[in-house]
Specification:
It is built from 4 helices and 2 strands, in the order αβααβα. By secondary structure, it is mainly alpha-helical. It has one domain.
Length: 82
């Protein structure tokens, strides 16, 4: 997390407003190791991950989105609620 805090601070110091996308067709490895989106419990874990990122990084970034998760779930072979 500190790496991303430092990165965001450096971007802002150079007048660049970062946009954070938490899921761009690649889950954090720990979630993928638990079966990825085919494991329903991953949805809750990803939500916890997103909440942590938003609470720690949110105040310093411009835009934030979890939107691609919905798209990934739409194309899943298994019904997953988000």
């Amino acid at each position: 997390m500190q790496y991303y805090k430092n990165l965001i601070n450096e971007l802002r110091a150079n007048n660049i407003i970062p946009m954070v996308v938490l899921y761009h067709w690649d889950l954090p490895q720990a979630l993928q190791d638990h079966g990825g989106w085919l494991n329903e419990s991953v949805v809750g874990h990803f939500n916890d991950y997103a909440d942590k990122c938003f609470s720690e990084l949110g105040p310093k970034v411009g835009k934030k989105t979890k939107r691609p998760v919905y798209v990934a779930c739409m194309f899943s072979k298994k019904k997953i609620s988000v």
